[in-house]
Design a protein that fits this description.
The protein is built from seven helices and five strands. With 184 residues, the protein is of the alpha/beta class. The chain has a five-stranded mixed beta sheet. β4, α2 and β5 form a beta-alpha-beta unit. α3 crosses α5 and α4 crosses α5. The longest helix has 20 residues. It is globular and about 40 Å long. The chain starts with a strand and ends with a helix. The relative contact order is 0.18.
Amino acid sequence: MTIILGIDPGSRVAGYGVIRKEGNKLTYLASGCIRVKEKELPQRLKQVFDGVTQLIAQYKPDEFAIEQVFMSRNADSALKLGQARGVAIVAACNANLPVSEYAARLIKQAVVGTGAATKDQVGHMVTQMLKLPAKPQEDAADALAIAICHAHAHQGLISKSGKRRSSSMRTLPSHLKNRCKEVL
């Protein structure tokens, strides 16, 4: 059994998702958002750090997964996002957790089957895969998708290069295979 904490970083809202992996089975444990209230960036970063530290203490994950920074049109936003990622990673390192980073396209591919999936498709598939009663908030759904991507990467369903292994659809339950096809 492995508990995975996925983080969708942000300097104003950071999503988190916690799942348990037992063999091929993924179980939802928790998700939500760290909502930053401070106005100045240093205090916002501290709130992200404190929030991730608190999640680690509460859920005691074995592994930590986070989305890589993508290049934005706005360099200032990309820098702030990078700093938020950095403090989340430091929180994980302080707890001696192994840290894995995944590109957004790989995360979408692992959950939906295509790297060009929309946020709505990601949220839908996360809801289906984890058998949730309702779709989580967008940032929380993204964080759960990151955790699912990490679980699949460690099961050998996807490679770090982003290529889906040929057996990945065969390992999904039949009801999810059909849902994947409908969403695509």
